[in-house]
Specification:
The chain is mainly alpha-helical and 455 residues long. The protein is built from 19 helices and no strands. The structure holds phenylalanine (PHE). Phenylalanine binds next to helix 1, helix 2, helix 10 and helix 14.
């Protein structure tokens, strides 16, 4: 093999577990259900799935391709594959920066999941009403020390796993955590649909209400697809570089995307029947998970166990994602600056910690500090998901469609002729034309250009 020294995922299952671990996260279990609740239930689901198939699959394929062909981190990959002297490596730099920024707010919410595990263990949701639970969440999340302590702990756990390496850290932990996550979410789903009145939740989820669909819903669904599949910021390039040359890339893409989508749907199946059964407004938004669910658990037989399972699930999902985000930065540091993994992980985590502290404080004492009109937390969230990731995805599609050599791509996808690549023409057409145009539209919409034009 060309690069014997480079770390590799050991098994096929390990690759899928790690990449699906990256994709499945707070985006699936926290963000997807509330987006769906606000955007017409089944209709959003349908459009989301179209986005996944039309954009998610080809862009993930491109990222894996770029990673495995170059055997490099996100920055090195573009330098190796792009024309000499070109500036494509800047796409990788933007990816590494995105990883920093996403981590900055992601670890804060991840830390909250640990607090909620403790709350669940101590049965503190029991017999509380909505008002009390809302106050508890607000008091906690706007507080100074507790969220920072939880965030720090979460970051330390992520860092320790990353220092463990690709095979023994990332792969091993994902192989253990992902099946556990699946079991928990299925158990929660079964429990939710068997609640009295739960059928209505399922109807909401699967019966499309097309009257709710407008252009912004379509564009939201596309943005959600990017975030949820960890695309547009070099994460799948980095993981792709660890995929064994013998693995079938197209299958891996299908498997990861399938798991990510199924978990988002299962999370919604676990949440919406319960929401309807207890008469809660499905359009509640981001507080759905931290306020509504404890509310549901508070009034449910065996609530302690279910809430404990749910928040363990949420923190596992978050952890496999923070691992992948940190790895983007660590792979860059170790390869471009010849650092050891431990040193790279510690330096990166220290930077993330500072950002995370700022983001956490911006929920409370620093809520008056604004960057472009956003709190620090919202700024990090918005600049990554609304600007950097779509822009990264657009550039990655252009790179695959117009810069990379077609026969080399075919060779990589077919493992030098071993596997069929009948899908290649469709894939190539999408990355050349469809994806760039579609992503440009998300991008313009999120900058408010369409709204501005209509005025
Ligand atoms: N896909 C993750 C989620 O859904 C978030 C993420 C984005 C992880 C980008 C890595 C890179 O929560």
């Amino acid at each position: 093999m060309a690069d014997n020294n480079r770390a590799n995922f050991g098994s096929k299952l390990g690759v899928v577990a790690a990449a699906a671990g990256s994709a499945v996260g707070l985006g699936n279990i926290w963000r997807f259900p509330y987006e769906l609740g606000q955007s017409g239930g089944g209709a959003f689901l349908l459009i989301y799935i179209v986005c996944i198939v039309l954009l998610g699959l080809p862009i993930m394929t491109s990222e894996f391709l770029i990673g495995r062909m170059s055997q490099s981190n996100a920055v090195g990959a573009f330098r190796k594959l792009g024309p000499k002297g070109s500036k494509w490596w800047l796409v990788g730099v933007m990816g590494v920066l995105s990883a920093f920024f996403i981590m900055g707010f992601y670890v804060v919410v991840s830390g909250w999941t640990l607090e909620y595990i403790v709350q669940a263990v101590t049965n503190s949701f029991a017999n509380k009403d909505t008002e009390t639970l809302t106050r508890a969440f607000t008091d906690f999340s706007t507080g100074t020390w507790r969220p920072i302590i939880w965030m720090t702990l979460f970051l330390v756990i992520t860092c320790v796993i990353i220092v463990g390496g690709v095979k023994n850290g990332i792969e091993k932990s994902a192989k253990f955590m992902m099946p556990l996550l699946l079991i928990i979410i299925v158990a929660l789903g079964v429990r939710a649909v068997t609640l009295p009145g739960g059928a209505e939740g399922l109807r909401f989820l699967f019966k499309p209400d097309f009257s709710k669909i407008d252009s912004s819903v379509v564009l939201n669904a596309m943005g959600q697809a990017f975030f949820s599949l960890s695309l547009g910021m070099g994460c799948m390039i980095t993981y792709g570089s660890y995929i064994n040359k013998k693995n079938h890339l197209a299958h891996t893409v299908l498997e990861v995307t399938f798991v990510d989508t199924i978990i988002a749907v299962l999370a919604s199946i676990a949440i919406f029947p319960a929401v309807f059964s207890f008469g809660i407004n499905p359009e509640q938004g981001p507080t759905l998970v931290f306020i509504t669910l404890p509310n549901i658990f508070a009034h449910m037989p065996g609530g302690l166990i279910w809430s404990l399972l749910f928040f363990i699930l949420l923190s596992i999902a978050a952890l496999t994602s923070t691992i992948s985000l940190l790895e983007v930065i660590v792979a860059f540091f170790t390869e471009e600056f010849k650092m050891s993994r431990a040193k790279a992980a510690i330096i990166a985590s220290a930077g993330i910690w500072v950002l995370g502290v700022c983001a956490s404080l911006s929920m409370g004492v620093w809520s008056d500090v604004h960057i472009f009109g956003f709190t620090i937390f919202d700024f990090l969230d918005n600049i990554t998901s609304k600007i950097m990731m779509p822009l990264g995805g657009l550039l990655i599609a252009l790179f695959a469609g117009w810069v990379m050599k077609k026969d080399q791509m075919l060779g990589e996808l077919s493992n030098n002729g071993k596997y069929k690549t009948a899908y290649f023409r469709a894939y190539y057409f999408i990355v050349r034309f469809v994806a760039p145009v579609a992503i440009l539209m998300i991008f313009l919409n999120q900058l408010g250009v369409f709204r501005w034009l209509r005025l």
